[in-house]
Specification:
Keywords: Cilium biogenesis/degradation, Glycoprotein, Membrane, Signal, Transmembrane, Transmembrane helix. Belongs to the tectonic family. This is Tectonic family member 2. It comes from Salmo trutta (Brown trout). This protein is mainly β and about 725 residues long. Among the domains are: about 120 residues, Immunoglobulin-like (Sandwich), CATH 2.60.40; about 150 residues, no CATH class; about 180 residues, no CATH class; about 50 residues. About 15% of the residues lie in helices and about 35% in strands. The chain contains eight helices and 30 strands. The strands form eight sheets. The chain has a six-stranded mixed beta sheet with strand order 13-18-16-17-15-14, with no helix packed on it. The protein is flat, with a radius of gyration of 50 Å. The relative contact order is 0.05.
Length: about 725
């Protein structure tokens, strides 16, 4: 019976405990945070726990006059100037938001209603109660202290911050006053702090200049320590300075205007209008006569091609733009006209220069077309702009001339029947050259430098006298399929080289050997038309002594040129140039070379038309290619101005002072007048001292001792 009663008691206790736990679980809600202080018109908090059936009540509070305490929480709604909203952000989380439903503008006159009559616009205490039915479960206290918004009467330009000059005016009488219209804790000089608030931290005010008080005297000043506790060395090392020279003054900026830096953005930047300058400096953009940027296609940092990129002064570059040619281009930059390219550009000196356009046709399209295609079914695009090469001639801070070489070519593009794309690589370059457009770069100063072009010339007789017109010295240059190009390869000083190409000749040409020989000789002469060669790398076109006549070796005219059907002998297929030079001196560690003589000779060969199969050649229209070559050789002439070597110098080279580090014949060189390392009297004195030590060592040494002993024994 007792066991039954005990079981009943336990069941009732468990039932009561379960009811209590369920009741606590229903009312287990809390605000986070539970207390807020706000100085703005918006705030938010979170209600955590089982929020089912929970309602939020907002009320305005005031202190009781009798007890000075806040009233107890209640679930009675009150009319306030705040708007309460709630948002469920989780199963057990509710975001509570309050926003002020009034204007914070300061009233300008007494007739305004929706405004703040005083700078302290809102000063009240709020309570948000979480109620389950009529029973409050949790509460959130809010202290609102909001000041009116004051806007500047004058428009603010560029959002710049002006910092006053510290030499004439301090940055502020209270540097620790960081919040406008609010009391900063521990800032005793803050004008916004009420006397009641100052009493809370009056003993904990910020020290030093940041607290608005006089900073303590630094230890290194002479007035910092008294005579009793100062060390003995302190008067010698202390600093004599006024107390007003506070080291914290260096933490402030002097008077300046700070412009905010632009932040990175993914939006497309808006380019401002260009500002033309009177003179050009390195890196400045070049302007046209209409005050627009002078632009040509260039490569960007990511490798893409920008068609309208400005050209910078004294900035050379090379760019390649790859385009998939689906059809023939109709506009720039692949389809241009000379009129469009003859742009008038400001020269930077108050004048205007016009771009001088020169056209040339590209024979070899391989540098421009990625994959040549067959002509069947393709569209032929004529006069496509393949390259634009600009040369800007500058002097000082301006431009003197601009030349443009436009390379054109006929390119096959895609068609409807053959929609394959054609990769076209257009090339663009800009080079800035110092001087006038008529001036040409030198090959050294004064002598030739290895790797520079050899300067040739042609005599031109004018009214004022004889002038040498510069012209390059060229070798043959092959193009597509090894055929000869219209322009040769420039000869570089000191570099021996041989070049050649193929010349197409028909069987009909081989029946007229004399005419063929004359035509080949004309081609060899047209390759390099120079009749004079500059002695040095910086010749004067008006001074004929700076130029040498080229010596041409004539061929034997009596040599037969025929040899049968399809065979011609005596064809001048090879031209050789022999240049002799000497070293005249050294400037800056570089040897200066001067050309002494130039000889040009032709070498003949026999051309035979190969018909194949051993049958006689009957088709006169057949064509076969024959090689034509050219070469150049540089020879240094050694100059020996010294006397001839003796037989002793030839046989006993170990005694030659020019070949060995040890030179016995010059052992007494410091005692001669030619030694300039120190004064003659000092070197003579040192030499005599050495002689004295040598004599002393000889007298006191072992050989002299033996001589004395032998002398004594002989006398005895």
């Amino acid at each position: 019976m007792a066991n039954i009663l005990s079981a009943r008691v336990l069941c009732r206790c468990a039932y009561i405990l379960l009811i209590v736990l369920i009741t606590d679980a229903k009312s287990n809600v809390v605000f986070q945070p539970s207390y807020l202080v706000t100085s703005g018109p918006r705030l938010s908090a979170f209600l955590l726990g089982n929020t089912s059936g929970i309602s939020l009540i907002l009320s305005s509070l005031s202190l009781s006059n009798a007890s000075g305490r806040l009233p107890t929480p209640s679930c009675s709604d009150d009319l306030t100037q705040w708007v309460l909203t709630q948002e469920l952000v989780g199963k057990t989380t509710v975001r509570v938001q309050l926003s002020l439903n009034r204007s914070l503008l300061l009233c300008r006159n007494n007739n305004d209603t929706d405004c703040c009559p005083e700078p302290l616009c809102v000063l009240e205490t709020l309570r948000v109660s979480a109620c389950l039915g009529n029973a409050p479960q949790a509460s959130l206290l809010i202290q609102a202290r909001i000041y009116a918004q004051v806007f500047p009467t004058e428009p603010v330009s560029d959002n710049k911050t002006v910092i006053p000059n510290q030499v004439y005016r301090p940055l502020g009488s209270c540097p620790c006053d960081l919040t406008v219209g609010a009391c900063d804790v521990r800032c005793c000089c803050d004008k916004d702090c009420s006397p009641e608030a100052l009493k809370l931290f009056q003993g904990q005010c910020l020290s030093g200049p940041f607290g608005g008080e006089v900073s303590p005297v630094p230890d290194y000043l002479c007035i910092a320590q008294s005579a009793e506790n100062a060390p003995d060395w302190f008067p010698f090392l202390c600093v004599i300075s006024l107390p007003e020279n506070n080291p914290f003054l260096g933490l402030f900026y002097e008077g300046d205007t700070i412009t905010p830096k632009p932040r990175p953005s993914f939006q497309r930047p808006v380019l401002s209008a260009p500002l033309p300058t009177h003179i050009y400096q390195q890196g400045d953009p070049i302007f046209t006569i209409s005050d627009q940027y002078f632009t040509i296609p260039q490569n960007s940092l990511v490798g893409q091609c920008v068609n309208n990129a400005p050209v910078a002064f004294l900035k050379n570059f090379q760019a390649q733009c790859v385009t998939s040619l689906l059809s023939c281009p109709t506009g720039p930059p692949l389809q241009t006209t000379p009129t469009e390219l003859r742009v008038q550009v400001r020269d930077g000196q108050g004048g205007v220069v016009t771009v001088d356009v020169m056209d040339k046709m590209a024979v070899d399209l391989r540098p421009f077309v990625a994959s040549p295609v067959a002509e069947d079914g393709r569209l032929l695009c004529e006069n496509v702009t393949l390259a634009l090469d600009y040369k800007f001639f500058w002097k000082g801070n301006g431009l003197t001339n601009i030349t443009l070489t436009r390379t054109l070519g006929n390119v096959l593009s895609a068609s409807v029947s053959l929609p394959l794309t054609v990769g076209l690589t257009a090339r663009y370059s800009v080079v800035f050259l110092n001087g006038d457009a008529l001036a040409q770069p030198n090959s050294g100063n004064p002598g030739y430098q290895v790797g520079r072009p050899v300067i040739g010339g042609i005599v031109d007789t004018l009214e004022n006298g004889t002038v040498i017109q510069r012209t390059p010295v060229n070798l043959w240059k092959p193009v597509s399929s090894g055929l000869c190009a219209s322009e040769g390869r420039i000869v570089l000083f000191g570099e021996n080289s041989t070049a050649g190409c193929l010349l197409p000749v028909s069987l009909q040409n081989l029946t007229q050997c004399s005419l063929l020989s004359q035509n080949v000789a004309s081609l060899q002469r047209a390759l390099s038309t120079a009749t004079h060669i500059a002695r040095n790398g910086d010749p004067d076109v008006l001074n004929l002594t700076d130029w040498l006549n080229i010596s041409f070796v004539e061929l034997n005219s009596n040599q037969p040129v025929g040899g049968g059907i399809g065979i011609c002998s005596g064809i001048p297929s090879h031209r050789h140039i022999h240049v002799r030079s000497i070293v005249t001196g050294v400037v800056g560690g570089l040897p200066q070379r001067e050309i002494q003589a130039v000889e040009v000779s032709d070498h003949v060969s026999t051309w035979k038309f190969e018909c194949g199969g051993g049958d006689p050649c009957l088709e006169l229209t057949g064509i076969q290619t024959f090689p034509v070559t050219s070469s150049i050789t540089f020879t240094d002439i050694s100059i020996n101005t010294g006397p001839a070597k003796t037989r002793f110098q030839m046989n006993f080279t170990e005694y030659d002072c020019d070949r060995n580090d040890v030179c016995w014949p010059q052992l007494a060189f410091p005692l001669t007048r030619y030694y300039t390392g120190e004064s003659y009297s000092l070197s003579l004195a040192k030499g005599l001292i050495l002689v004295f030590f040598f004599i002393a060592a000889s007298v006191l040494g072992t050989p002299w001792k033996q001589i004395r002993q032998a002398w004594r024994s002989a006398s005895l």
